[in-house]
Every structure is written in C-alpha cells, then in structure tokens.
Amino acid sequence: MQAAAKIEMTNLEQIKGAIAAKMDSASFTSWIAPLQFDVCDNVLVLTAQNQFSADFINSVHSGVLVSVAAQFGMGLRICVRSARAAVIANDNNVQQYAPAANVASTHTATQDAFAAFVCSDENTFVVSACKKLAAGMVPFSPLFVYGPAGCGKSLLLDCIERASMGRTIKMSGGQFVSEFTRSLHDKSVFAFKDFCRNCDTFILDDVQTLAGKRATCEEFAQLVIDLRAAGKNIVLSANAAPNNLNGFDRRMQSLMASGLVADVAAPTMNVRRVMLMRAGVASDVADEIASRVAGNGHLIGGVALKIKTYAELMGTSVTMDIAQHLLADSLQKAKTPIAMVKSMCEKLAVSYDAVCGRGRSRAVVLARQMMMAVLKDATNMSLGEIGRVCGDRDHATVLYAIAQIEKLKKTDLVLAAQISQMVAEYK
After folding, report:
1. In the 8-state DSSP scheme, what is residue 188?
2. CA distances for 113 relative to 50, 102, 108, 163, 343, angstroms
3. Distance (Å, rounded) from C-alpha 259 to C-alpha 250?
4. How far is 228 from 220, CA to CA, in rounded Å?
5. CB under 8 Å to 240, separation ≥6 — which residues?
6. DSSP 3-state assignment of 260?
7. Mean pLDDT in residue range 385-391
8. What is the Cα–Cα distance from 381 to 387, expressed in whole angstroms?
9. Among residues 136, 144, 128, which one has the least CA distance to residue 204?
10. 45-100 per-position pLDDT tens digit
11. Whether residue 42 has pLDDT greater than 90
C-alpha cells in the first residue's frame, strides 16, 4: 500500500516537472503550483481553489496541461474544490477578499465620458487611444500614459473607467501596494490575485509609487502578464516614460513599454482658457489669466475654484483687477532660467538637487542633457550661462550634452517629442 502511494507521488512530481518545463516560472508558480494534483481512473485531476482560477487556467493554460497529461497516457479534468476542503487543505488560503476602498465597478458605458477632458492638438493621439480601448478589446494593451503632474493623466483614466463596458478595476499605485500588503497579512493573497484578474479592464494610476517595492513589483508584473494573456485591457499611468522610471528593473520597464506608450501634454493656453470658462470665469478674464498661469491642471482648477467662490461669497462678478489681487500668489511673473530648470525637473521626474549636483545615474544625466538642449533652443542664453544654471557645468560639458541629445533625437521619437514640447513651452 505504501509502495503504491509512493509510486503515485513520484508520478505526480514527474507530471509537475513536465508542466513546469513547458511554462515560464512565474506563471507556473502563480497558477499551477497551488493546484491539488490527483489521478483518478487514468485522468489527471487538477483542483483549483475557486471557479475563477479554474476558468482562467482552463482558458489560458489548458493546451500545455492537456499535452503533458497525454504524454503520461491520461486525460485531464480541472475542477473546483469545496469551501470545506479548501480550509482543510490549506488553512492559510482565505477564500474571501474585500478591498478596503471601492476600486471595482460594473456599469453601462457613458457616451460623453471624455467630455470632461479638454483635448488639445498635442493630446489628440492619446485621447483617441483611450477612447478606442474603452470601446472594447485592443491589440495595444497595456496602454501606458505619462506626463508631468497636472497634465490630466488621472482625469483621462477616470474617463476610461466611465466609458468602459463590463467590470473595471481602478486603483492608484498606493492602493495596490496597500491592498497587496494587507492580503499578505490577512493570508488572502490568492483571493486578492483573483479579485484583480476578474475584470475586463484594469487601470493603475501612478505606477511610479511601486518603485523599490520588490514583492509588489513581482506581483504587479505577473498580473500584467496574466491579464494580457487573458485578453483583458490594461491601462497604466506614471509621471515619466517607462525607461525613465527609477526603481524598476529592466524587465519591469520593458513589460510596461510592451504595449502603447503615449505622453499627455500639459494644458496649452487655449485649454487653460476653456477650463476657466467652463468654471464660470468671464471670457476676458479667462484670456488674461490663461496667459499668466502655469500649465498645470491642478493649479488651474484651484484658480477657477477661487474665482468662483469669491463671486458667490461677495455677490459680484470678478474683473481682471480683482483677479490680479486675488491671484497674486498664482499668476506667473517673467520666467527665469532657474524657474525653467525647476519646472523641467518636475516634468522629467528628477530632483533639482540631483540635476544641479554631481548625480551620475542614467536618468539624471539624460534629464540634465535634455534641459541644456531645451535652454539652448528656447532662450538666448550662452553655453556658459546654461552651464551655470545646470550646476556650474563648463562650456565643453554643455556642448557635449547638446550633441548627445541631437544624436538621440534621430532614433528616439518619444524623446524628440518631449524636447519639442518643452522648447515650445519655454520660448
């Protein structure tokens, strides 16, 4: 009896080894290893923890499993274990998971969902891609959108959520870290995996907050791989392009860049004007303010709210004289070179101290060189003056940096577009 059991165990281990040899290690560890393996009447029985896992494995990995079972002269059946059996087999596997925040929704798509986003010519491409994704399954998943703070990334993601059919899960990067950590603590990590995969569209805002969190990054990477294999839509956003994100290894950067990468340009003067007028600001006042307020959607929203609140509380319309006094802390004065450098640091997601210091990381060096090239094209500053505002670099360093950027622009279209956009903004 013991000998027969030992032989059966050996056969099951051989079957597991044969399956592992035909799959990538991450998929095997996440989906196949947790299954219960049995042989009944010459049929390989794989028991999953719940119906979603069984359906996913059957749709994505059944080809490999059937071929391996055939090698051993067996058929294949994938089934779901009962709730009682699950507790006995693995008391760490809590079958229920409820997110701390309301991150999942199922609703009927809203046709005018994208009306809230004021689209400029520079953002026509990325908005079209978002609308296409919201309309159904697309071949360019994951869609990765990036841009500086206040350019409208989160608003675009909200529009996708409202316009998408079926079940949509939308989280911020901070929420994903928190929920994954809580699932580990509560011993419900498999239920958390199932929750994230049981959707038609998965949206993650501010991916950069995952940087440096190794376990969370591994779980997120496997989530993207599994969702894409199941034909689901994935939307990601960050403050920089995938190859410029610090704290992620090459594998993660390439995975995030494996779909469609599109940048979101900061609000232009016309967009700022429309946003102010939509908030009830008079057209003549909106024209003047739009030319003197920074291209940051958060700031513009705050300015519009301040004007609207003043008009309601004081019972009077806001003239330009009142607006100038009211917005003295927000309206821009003349742009200085240092202010330009600080603004570009924010757009490129690097520290001003690192750029003007002796930092030699790849991201910092590239950002510094880009800033020098932008200042050369957007201002009348000499190479020596550009070097001084970028950390007291000499004339030769600035000249070399500009030459490197000109060389990169010929092969990197994303970088070339970033440079052109910043030159136009700072002229």
Report:
1. -
2. 35, 20, 11, 6, 31
3. 15
4. 12
5. 146, 208, 348, 349
6. strand
7. 90
8. 10
9. 144
10. 888 877 777 877 887 888 889 889 888 888 888 888 754 333 333 444 444 667 76
11. no
Beta carbons of 235 and 202 less than 8 angstroms apart: yes
Which tokens in the block code for residue 180? 């994954």
Write down the architecture of domain 2-89 according to CATH.
Answer: 2-Layer Sandwich (3.30)
* Of 23, 40, 36, residue with least CA distance to 93: 36
Q: Look up tokens 């995996």; give the residue.
A: 193
Here the tokens at position 363 are: 């991201």
- Distance CA(392)–CA(81), nearest Å, equals 67
CB neighbour burial string for 403-417, b if at least 16 within 10 angstroms, e if fewer: ebbeebbeeeebbee
What is the total residue count of the chain? Answer: 427
Residue in the block written with tokens 């909200």 = 158
CATH 3.40.50.300 location in the chain? 104-263
The yes/no answer on whether domain 337-426 falls in CATH 3.40.50.12780 is no
Structure tokens at 118: 């004021």
Domain span(s) for CATH 3.30.300.180 in the chain: 2-89
Answer CATH for 104-263 from 3.20.20.190, 3.90.1750.20, 3.40.50.720, 3.40.50.300: 3.40.50.300
Give the tokens for residue 24.
């990538």
Residue 270 in tokens: 């016309």
* Residues forming a β-bridge with 235: 143, 203
Rounded CA separation 407/85 (Å): 63
Quote the CA–CA distance of 395 and 249 in Å, as a whole number.
Answer: 34
């136009």: which residue's tokens? 424
In angstroms, the CA 132 to CA 156 distance is: 13
- From-to residues of CATH 1.10.1750.10 in the chain: 337-426
Render pLDDT for 258-283 as a digit per residue (tens, 0 to 9): 999 999 988 888 888 888 888 788 88
Edge to edge, what strands does the sheet with 104-107 contain? Answer: 104-107, 166-172, 201-205, 233-238, 143-146, 260-263
Residues 6+ apart with CB under 8 A from 250: none
148: cis peptide before it, omega within 30°?
A: no
173-185 and 189-197 helices, crossing angle to 10°: 140
Within 10 Å of residue 95's Cβ, how many Cβ atoms?
Answer: 14
- Phi then psi for residue 255, to 5 deg, are -65, -45
Enter the pTM of the model.
Answer: 0.61
